[in-house]
Amino acid sequence: MSDLTINVEFSGGMELLFNNVRQHKITLPAKSPLDNSKPAQLRDLIFYIRDNMMTEKKDLFVEKDTVRPGILVLINNVDWELCDELDYELEDKDEIVFISTLHGG
Amino acid sequence: MANNNFCCKCKTGQATIRIRHAFYCHDCFLFAVVGKYRTILGKSRSMNRAKGKVLLACSGGPSSISMLHMTKEFMHVEPYAKKKIQVLDSALVCHIDESALFEAQNGSTQKMKEMVEKEFPNMDFLSSSMQDIFLKDFTKDADLDTVLKGMDGSSDYDYLVKPIKQESTLNSETDRIDRLRELFNGINKNTAKEDLYWHIKMTMLVTLAKKEGCSYIFMGDTATRQAIKMISMTGKGRGYSIPFDIGVENDITFPGLTILRPMKDMLSKEIGLYNRFKDLEKYVIPPTDFNTGKPAKSSIERLTEEFITTLDRDFPSTVSTISRTASKLTPLNDMDLSKKCAICNMPYQAGIEDWRRRITVTNVKDKSPDAIPNEEKKKLDDSMIDMNEYLCYSCQVDMKDYKNDTVSRLPPYSVKAILDEYLINDNDEE
């Protein structure tokens, strides 16, 4: 069972929640920790980030079981709304971008 | 991971983005977004009448940066495109530095200056710091030695002050920064802080625009921001001036100056994606204000933002529906534009105080409800001024959250506006 390498980028102010670091390389197991028979999904990545990379203000990234409204997610430059959103099955070397669009202007 | 959607415009490219209920491919999306900007400029009454210098209000946030980029594209005309007239002669990027209030914004001016020099070389750059509001430059015929001191005896409806002479001690930049911080720290609620912050910013932009000979100010408010402001301003009692505060074109409140909001048809999602695809993200200075990182209930605007962004996620037409309603708002025909609020510079309705007395439930006193409030005032010390007479309703409400000595720290332009109006009224009565 191999691991997946996911390139994650934060922008639009989100990087402030992660020590001002925009680019991150994350290694995730290929199977979802919630259900070993299923491949890892985007929601697993989001929970991983919340539980391992954030020390405070978790509610500025994750609300209930999904990203906070106002945060855009791009999967390999495609709007996640076109790719099953949280159910998207991650593949090795995927590029996921989180862009915050709050307080614009 | 089925993505069988085709772009709704070109019908051939595979869709990569969903905006509201429509699917677009990259190129069509970018084309549509820029098209919205051009449409607004093309439809503008004032722009069609007269050209003029444009001041681009740029906070460094994502919408301002997109606006700069689109403006740059608009100023550039292909030699073979005979139909396109170069509408904008010259543009000036204006940044108001707020690092005195928000440490996270330190270095914003330098960053913006470098960006303009590199990416927008045919635009000038001007910056001013928020604490400069205490300088003579922002108050015509300034008398920086007079401040207003809050007096006891105010009822629920008036705010009594007395002008006193105070040696102007704001001699250095540090003094002015301290004064600015004291002013904001002396306001209890975030809602009132945000309002004052915004009014000071607008005043500075208008003053700078006039000083630099600009006839237009472009502001980067998006449709999302407009929807949020529409609801939050109604909640704060600013309904009278909403058409001016959020309308796409305002050439009424500041004679000689037109305020345009070319981004008002774009959702914040479109702006976020535009900046990403045009590689502008590196220039975006994450916006910080009193609500950044705070829970939803910290202010009316923050709560409204939470409400609208959450609703819009599940019902993507939310923002556009509110925006459409907002654009139908027009100012009243018989608006009295000669009276302007001393803090926010917007027109206010006459008779606010009487209205407040009529609708408010307070302690029942032994007076008949028909007692004329003015008779009480004549008994007061003649040198006291009721500030509320020169403020609009929402600024009056904000004043209730000011601590006792905060009013003495109000910027000079407000103090002068109040005193000038008072003297005019005083002369009338004699």
From TrEMBL, chain A:
Cytoplasm is among the record's keywords: yes
Main subcellular location of this protein, as a coarse class: cytoplasm
Gene3D superfamilies: 3.10.20.30
Cellular localization per UniProt: Cytoplasm
Residues with the 1-thioglycine modification: 105
PTM statement from Swiss-Prot or TrEMBL: C-terminal thiocarboxylation occurs in 2 steps, it is first acyl-adenylated (-COAMP) via the hesA/moeB/thiF part of UBA4, then thiocarboxylated (-COSH) via the rhodanese domain of UBA4.
Alphabetized CDD domains for the sequence: Ubl_Urm1 (cd01764)
GO cellular component: cytosol
UniProt keyword terms in alphabetical order: Cytoplasm, Isopeptide bond, tRNA processing, Ubl conjugation pathway
Crosslink feature (Glycyl lysine isopeptide (Gly-Lys) (interchain with K-? in acceptor proteins)) location: 105
Pfam families in the record: Urm1 (PF09138)
Keyword Protease tagged: no
Pathway in which this enzyme or protein is active: tRNA modification; 5-methoxycarbonylmethyl-2-thiouridine-tRNA biosynthesis
Source organism superkingdom: Eukaryota
GO biological process: protein urmylation; tRNA thio-modification; tRNA wobble uridine modification
InterPro entries the record matches: Beta-grasp_dom_sf, Mopterin_synth/thiamin_S_b, Urm1
Family: Belongs to the URM1 family.
Function: Acts as a sulfur carrier required for 2-thiolation of mcm(5)S(2)U at tRNA wobble positions of cytosolic tRNA(Lys), tRNA(Glu) and tRNA(Gln). Serves as sulfur donor in tRNA 2-thiolation reaction by being thiocarboxylated (-COSH) at its C-terminus by the MOCS3 homolog UBA4. The sulfur is then transferred to tRNA to form 2-thiolation of mcm(5)S(2)U. Prior mcm(5) tRNA modification by the elongator complex is required for 2-thiolation. Also acts as a ubiquitin-like protein (UBL) that is covalently conjugated via an isopeptide bond to lysine residues of target proteins such as AHP1.
Designated name of the protein: Ubiquitin-related modifier 1
Organism: Circinella minor
UniProtKB/TrEMBL annotation, chain B:
Gene3D superfamilies: HUPs
Protein's cellular compartments: Cytoplasm
Protein name: Cytoplasmic tRNA 2-thiolation protein 2
Entry function: Plays a central role in 2-thiolation of mcm(5)S(2)U at tRNA wobble positions of tRNA(Lys), tRNA(Glu) and tRNA(Gln). May act by forming a heterodimer with NCS6 that ligates sulfur from thiocarboxylated URM1 onto the uridine of tRNAs at wobble position. Prior mcm(5) tRNA modification by the elongator complex is required for 2-thiolation. May also be involved in protein urmylation.
GO cellular component, one term: cytosol
UniProt keyword annotation of Nucleotide-binding present: no
Record Pfam families: CTU2
GO biological process, one term: protein urmylation
Keywords recorded for this protein, A-Z: Cytoplasm, tRNA processing
Record HAMAP family: CTU2
Chief localisation class: cytoplasm
Pathway of action: tRNA modification; 5-methoxycarbonylmethyl-2-thiouridine-tRNA biosynthesis
UniProt record similarity statement: Belongs to the CTU2/NCS2 family.
The keyword tRNA processing appears for this protein: yes
MF annotations from Gene Ontology: nucleotidyltransferase activity; sulfurtransferase activity; tRNA binding
Domain of life of the organism encoding this protein: Eukaryota
